[in-house]
Amino acid sequence: MKFKKILLLGVSVVFLALAFYFVQNSAKDKSSIFKVFRTIDGDTIELTNGQMVRLLGIDTPEKRQYYYEEASKRLEELTKGKEVFLEKDVTNRDNYGRLLRYVYVGSLFVNLEMIKEGYAQAFVVAPNLKYSYVFLKADNATKVKGIGIWINNSK
Length: 155
Prior knowledge:
Strand 2 and strand 3 form a beta hairpin. This protein has one domain (30-150): CATH 2.40.50.90. The chain contains 4 helices and 8 strands. Helix 3 packs parallel to helix 4 (132-145). A 5-stranded mixed barrel has the order 1-2-3-6-5. Mean pLDDT is 86; it is low at 9-27. It is an alpha+beta fold.
């Protein structure tokens, strides 16, 4: 009887240790959480530490292009002053020294949301293809609906 109790206790300890390990490793890495200082445009933000972040997988209009102001304002609404989780793909930085990242505010996937709401179009470039299918699918749906940047370009 005593042996069974010890065995049960041992199994319980191992189970709890494994559960703790998986919970800790599935949680977002706190070293990848930053606060957004400002938005630069519809696909670039600046963190409070001065780092510039280019959102991977999307492209928004440039200055003096149709829907530039709307896209920039929407990214600002989604991120400015908020804590964001940054997820890396393959490439760390672009030619301008900006971090290339997927951006989350809580559970909101900002890159994808910008496409779904029509403020950005999918812009997938190898080797950063982690969410390419999801982005292209959302981009196609937005085009078909003719919303945002696609208002004048649908059908």
